Amino acid sequence: MLHARSIVNLVKPNSQKFAGWLLAKTTVPAISAASYRNYNVPVTAEPFLSGSSSTYIEDMYNAWLQDPSSVHTSWDSFFRNSAQGGVAYQAPPSLAPLGKNEVPAASFLPAVSAGSPGIGISEKVIDDHLAVQAIIRSYQIRGHHIAKLDPLGINSADLDDRHPQELLYSHYSFAETDMDRSFKLPSTTFIGGKEKSLPLREILRRLELAYCRHIGAEFMFINSLEQCNWIRQRLESPGCMEISNEQKRLLLARLTRAHGFEGFLARKWSSEKRFGLEGCEILIPAMKQVIDKSTELGVESIIMGMPHRGRLNVLANVCRKPLNQIFTQFAGLEAADDGSGDVKYHLGTYIERLNRVTNKNIRLAIAANPSHLEAVDPVVQGKTKAEQFYRGDGEGKKVMSILLHGDAAFCGQGIVYETMHLSDLPAYTTHGTVHIVVNNQIGFTTDPRQSRSSPYCTDVARVVNAPIFHVNSDDAESVMHVCNIAAEWRSTFHKDVVIDIVCYRRNGHNEMDEPMFTQPLMYRKIRNTKPALEKYSEQLISEGVVTPEEVKEVKEKYDKICEEALESARKETHIKYKDWIDSPWSGFFEGKDPLKVGPTGVIEETLVHIGKRFSSPPPNAAEFVIHKGIERILKTRMEMVESRTVDWALGEAMAFGSLLKEGIHVRLSGQDVERGTFSHRHHVLHHQTVDKATYKPLCNLYPDQAPYTVCNSSLSEFGVLGFELGYSMTNPNALVCWEAQFGDFNNTAQCIIDQFISSGQAKWVRQSGLVMLLPHALEGMGPEHSSARLERFLQMSSDDPDYFPPESDEFAVRQLHDINWIVANTSTPANYFHILRRQIALPFRKALIIMTPKSLLRHPEAKSSFDEMKEGTEFQRIIPDRGAASQNPESVKKLVFCSGKVYYDLKKAREEKKLEKDIAITRVEQISPFPYDLIKAECAKYSNAQLCWAQEEHKNSGAWMYVNPRFDTTLNGTRNVFYAGRPVSASTATGSKAQHLKELSNLLEDAMRLP
User: Fold this and answer.
1) Which of 328, 438, 519, 622 shows a CA-CA span of 20 to 30 A to 561?
2) Are residues 140 and 113 located together in one domain of the fold?
3) Last residue of a domain, one of 121, 152, 178
4) Does one domain contain both 249 and 229?
5) Is 482:469 a contact under the CB 8 Å cutoff?
6) Domain holding 887: CATH number?
7) Are 827 and 923 in contact (CB under 8 A)?
């Protein structure tokens, strides 16, 4: 049942007079949907009942308020009388009998009064005008479903071959005789241009051209009338797709180069995988058009991410990377610099060049990425955000990102959704990304009907109100049109936009693959389909834009360029991977001693100043109301500063603050990092009575300090860690940290860890100083809140367990230089302070993986003195025993090595058993690279002691499997090292507190047992 008040709601609040009148006159209890269909109410039943007709009425009423002549005379009469409080319209009686509880339509919509203007207007006139508006809206909403998008003509891009009934004019009771009748056009369409009415036949023709030809536009779900009208105007305006002959020739030349590049590679390296672009060569002109238009609109730098398909062509013809450098990748040469290298279609690049179309300089970068196709998306966004930040580009007018996707990956991989949801978050937005989908209509061998549940592969973009333009790849000019719209949209609204190029893959998944095994009908059709270049050449020849000779000349000219580049490539003897870095750090490495680390200690005055600022309430404390609990925390911090001691949170703040003082930008990101998951950090103080009023102490340390960014993230690990990694790659002179809520949560970001952070330098000569903060320790909180999987990071460390490096003064820094990353489990605030500052003091960049504490955040013994952080102090790779055992090392019976929080458990157990003279406990703070030299010296010091490694993790977890062979190498097999800890387990921890305590007791008993 549809109540009268529901009708008022449909008409919208801003039509108050009309709505109020309608409610006052409509006192019937309810009218059923069936009654609407039986009585000829002047709105088509289905659109009205679905809610869409409210927009028609509202649009007409608002247009009438501005200009009564802008609506049909029947509606002028209707609105004029309703505004005066009179009757407006009487529906004719129904021929159908009334059902139970139904009322005549006459009592729902009153009749036109006898003396009213417009008397005698036919109900059919009103019905027909409303029907025309319904048709226009139906094309705008649903036209994309019947657009001719598949260049092969065999598939429907939305996996549905049905023709929506609302797109048939016969659905609205029109006959052929109505086709030449003129109808007033509503304000929500631009098909008329300057004309305010058109014959129905012409209306339908123009709607077909705009929405059902080779462009399928999805945008009517966007909840902004301004944005919808903006798109409608660019799709519907007469002549909007026309381009000049000069532009057509440029498009042909670009398409020729794209096609020629693939053909050249196929001829020269027929047996090599290259993941060519055949079937979607239009991608190259499309990308160049987006770049041209964006450059014209003020963009100076574009960062791109893409999968492997078409990458070489993009490098060659979009970025204009020298062809000889690309061809060298096919020669099977060894690398001339560091790194194991990667396959050619995973490499990135960085190019600065002149855009000849706009005559402006442009910087283009393609991020290197692995075969985890969409994993590069957040990395690119992080790089883009960082470049915008360092350029002061707060609105994204100078720096933008373009992301390329495959259809199967775009809808199938969750990282796309995670990245999309960063698009409007203040600390993560890049102010709009242009997404281009190379829609092959197949994923390797998987049919789209088996690879997605949504109608389109692009439906994930609807969640962020991104307009989506599906376009037939064989209509080159339509592709250019949507590229212009996309670039302008991004520039105007600073929001994401999607271009879905519906194409095909002429070869198999790679050039060695046989697609006929699984898609015989599709590939039979493909073999008989002309390439897009041939079709467009024929079109321009028929239009008289070019001659056949000119087409041939352009092809031959590019082929000659490729031949000359190949000759140059054959002279190369090595591959230079430094030519493939996607964001070079200009000047960072030059003039530095690669083995000299800057100081990490800080003068006491600085520590005191930072400590006091961090421990003080906002300057306007009388007005800024902070929580009572925060007042107590600040008071406790101030007491520590005055006593010259620090806890974990204060030590971290001093590390950050001292770097900010030195001009180093610091960024801390992750879930709940502003307060800290364990309520220890409080880097953002919130006004208790005013919403959104905050104070950030570390942003107010010095007037000329570097900016500090601390930002809670979305509930994403994969996406946000990738984002922060990208951010860290842009500028080496910044400390970028990502913190997991609990260390375990890094599991869902494993792809970024494995494919980028661990191996990035080896594959792509790509360094990063990213810091991963992973709360870690078994404290009876169950398996999901205990372990950061320390063993995984150690397993991926690239130091050789059987190799003891030559000892020298640069031993420690040489190890750091040669390894892929640093893994640490620090146990004191001072060491945490130093290791964070060392990230910037190093003459190179390595990712830092830190197992951070939970209970130690407030442990009374986990405190450090200012003396351990002042000038002349540094990070301690191991912390030797400084108690009674160290005074008489020859008599010590047992030397226990450990790492992290378990030290405090061992220390307490030793005290309880009064074994301070018999057992020495040494903390290994930096586990990887392994401190061979210091471990060797420590073992030699306690020459008579039994050696033991104690850990709180299970035997098959934690550091044991990593340190055991390295102890053997250090001691040259002369002494055994025993294990004390939990037994092996498939789960990281027990969920039973009692079981946890029992396991801890056994661990400590084993560690304290004397030989």
Assistant:
1) 438
2) no
3) 121
4) no
5) yes
6) 3.40.50.11610
7) yes
- Phi and psi torsions of 292, nearest 5°: -60, -50
Please check whether residue 324 is in contact with residue 566, taking contact to mean a CB–CB distance below 8 angstroms.
yes
Pairing of strands 685-686, 694-695: antiparallel
Of 716, 756, 741, 684, give the one whose Cα is nearest residue 422: 716
Residues of the domain holding 933: 878-1008
Which amino acid belongs to residue 739? E
Burial class (CB in 10 A: 0-12, 13-18, 19+), 271: exposed
| Total of domains in the chain | 5
Residue 929 preceded by cis peptide, ω within 30: yes
Do residues 879 and 828 make contact, with C-beta atoms less than 8 angstroms apart? Answer: yes
Residue 329 placed within a domain: yes
Which tokens is 334 given? 């060894």
For the stretch 826-872, pLDDT in tens is: 999 999 999 999 999 999 999 999 999 999 999 999 999 999 999 99
Task: Count the Cβ atoms, other than its own, within 10 Å of residue 603.
Answer: 12
Question: Would you state the pLDDT for residue 584?
Answer: 86
Do 352 and 443 belong together in one domain? yes
Confirm whether 485 is domain-assigned.
yes
- Residue of 857, 652, 834, 862 whose CA lies nearest to 737: 652
d(CA 959, CA 950): 9
- Give the tens place of pLDDT for each residue, 582-593: 888 988 988 889
The residue among 371 and 472 whose pLDDT is bigger is: 472
Residue 618's domain is classified under what CATH number?
3.40.50.12470
Task: Report the candidate in 877, 878, 856 with the shortest Cα–Cα distance to residue 777.
Answer: 856
Q: Which two tokens stand for residue 922?
A: 């040494």
Residues composing the chain: 1011
Token look-up 């294990």 returns 979
Q: How many CB atoms lie within 10 A of CB 167?
A: 20
Residue from 45, 8, 46, 48 nearest 26 by CA: 8
* 529 and 662 part of one domain: no
Give the pTM.
0.87
Looking up residue 144, the CATH number of its domain turns out to be 1.10.287.1150
Residue 350's DSSP bridge partners are 365
